[in-house]
Design goal:
Layout: E1 2-7, H1 12-27, E2 31-36, H2 38-41, H3 44-52, E3 55-58, E4 67-69, E5 72-73, H4 75-88, H5 90-104, E6 108-112, H6 116-124, E7 128-132, H7 136-143, H8 149-163, E8 167-170, E9 205-207, H9 221-224, E10 232-237, E11 258-262, E12 274-276, H10 284-289, E13 294-297, H11 301-310, E14 313-316, H12 324-335, E15 337-340, H13 343-348, H14 352-369, E16 371-376, E17 383-388, E18 394-398, H15 412-426
Parallel strand pairs: 1-2, 1-6, 2-3, 6-7, 7-8, 8-9, 10-11, 10-13, 11-12, 13-14, 14-15
Antiparallel strand pairs: 4-5, 16-17, 17-18
């Protein structure tokens, strides 16, 4: 079976999670054609898919989503880019994508989460299936000026493209997606954050378990970065965005006994407690499972999912313009441990109190959940945790503790692959009444 898989270039989180679904399809013997922007197509994530056997096609099919820095959207530039594309490029893009789809004749078109390819798929006569936790009409509408009729017209066009899709495989951390909301339930975007609950009525969807990259190789972070064994490690990462702040107050930066591992080589900060590296030089799940103790960053799906899967506490810097954040914070509250650090504290280098707070919370939850350390110092490869019975006897061993309120299933990539194949082969009738593999049980699971 041939799958055409369109991936947006707006943030690496889409590519990292899509790569897991694509790997699952490839393992099952299917052929996958990845369609991505030239920038994304040259990334280390897509190169990894090429090595696994995927085929890649570069194409321009979306506008630019412009950010001023890792946490702020440039609204004016983003809406201008959208307006220019809709006014000037849509007919050409549709023609090129329809022509290409017909030339390769896929069994199904999968999308995460560009809008225009859904219209191209419909006009070419192919089923279009989204695998995502949000659609960009939600993101744009959340920050759009309601009185600007031109912007509102553009957003209606975007929404109409999403409505051309046939089905949604919905990821955890989702927010309201209007194209998949029943028509009788009007979405009030002025109240978008409170409307992010899982009970939001939707049509044409299946809820997936967590789609997340898993560790591939053993990595000893302390040894790799020459960090003393008695030091705890705070990973600082903002999804590939450069951190240009130079006002960090080093005396308030980290608690004693902590080292910051920062994924940015361009930072102008000279502090022996900070170690800078290039994120593309390591596989992040290996990093998270290899000795990192806590993470500081923004709420993007990739990092949130991988932090949750690794059982690590997370400190997030809010991005008030990003509607997606509300769904991801809910996911972190359900499945992990997370607290908020204000932007002023982050850019001012006042991290110490939040690092201490999240570590204390993590230790309290460890006791509450019954975890105990069986050897080493608890840093990834150097120690193991176990859940203990009341008499102190260990009942199951795990590499990382699960500290959230709900059970976590992280086999979403395999489930998504199975769903895509079944939809391609059997259509959509079987999805009515399908029971989601996502468990509602409030408990904890361990890797035995």
């Amino acid at each position: 079976m041939l799958v055409a898989f369109y991936i947006t270039g707006h943030g690496f989180g889409h590519a990292t999670r899509s790569s897991e679904v694509i790997h699952a399809l490839l393992r099952d013997g299917h052929r996958v054609f990845v369609v991505a922007s030239p920038h994304l197509a040259k990334s280390f994530i897509i190169n990894d898919l090429l090595e696994a056997g995927a085929e890649v096609r570069e194409s321009h099919f979306e506008s630019n989503f412009v950010q001023t820095d890792p946490v702020v959207i440039n609204r004016t530039a983003s809406f201008k880019s959208l307006r220019d594309m809709i006014a000037n490029d849509v007919p050409r893009i549709l023609e090129q994508e329809i022509k290409w789809l017909k030339s390769v004749d896929p069994a199904i078109v999968c999308l995460d989460s560009p809008f225009l390819p859904a219209r191209a798929a419909k006009r070419a006569g192919y089923k279009a299936i989204y695998v995502t936790n949000f659609t960009f009409d939600s993101i744009f509408t959340y920050i759009a000026p309601p009185a600007d009729k031109e912007v509102q017209a553009d957003l209606e066009f975007v929404a109409s493209c999403y409505r051309d899709a046939d089905f949604l495989l919905r990821l955890p951390g989702h927010i309201v997606m209007p194209a998949f909301t029943r028509p009788e339930h009007k979405v009030d975007f002025s109240m978008l954050p409170p409307n992010t609950s899982p009970s939001q009525p939707t049509r044409r969807h299946i809820q997936l378990p967590l789609v997340v990259r898993q560790p591939r190789h053993g990595l000893d972070v302390h040894a790799t970065f020459n960090i003393p064994r008695d030091q705890k490690i705070l990973l600082v990462s903002f999804g590939g965005h450069s951190l240009t702040a130079n006002t960090w107050k080093t005396e308030e930066l980290l608690p004693p006994g902590w080292v910051g591992l920062v994924s940015d080589r361009e930072m102008p900060v000279d502090d022996h407690r900070l170690i800078f590296f290039e994120m593309s030089s390591v596989f992040v799940p290996d990093l998270l499972s290899g000795g990192v103790d806590a993470v500081l960053g923004k709420c993007g799906y990739g990092m949130c999912a991988e932090v949750v899967a690794a059982g690590l506490p997370f400190i997030y810097v809010p991005r008030p313009d990003f509607a997606e954040e509300h769904g991801l914070v809910r996911m972190l509250d359900d499945y992990g441990v997370a607290i908020r650090m204000e932007q002023t504290d982050f850019y001012g280098g006042v991290w110490k109190h939040k690092v201490e707070e999240v570590w204390t919370l993590r230790e309290q939850l460890m006791v509450k959940k019954g975890y105990a350390m069986t050897n080493g110092n608890g840093n990834g490869m150097n120690g193991d945790y176990a859940i203990a019975n009341g008499d102190g006897v260990y009942k199951s061993k795990c590499v990382r503790p699960r500290l959230g309120r709900k059970m976590i299933h992280d086999n979403g990539a395999e489930v998504a692959s199975e769903m895509l194949v079944r939809i391609a082969n059997e259509g959509l009738d079987w999805t009515t009444g399908y029971e989601s593999p996502e468990s509602p049980v409030d408990t904890v699971t361990v890797n035995v």
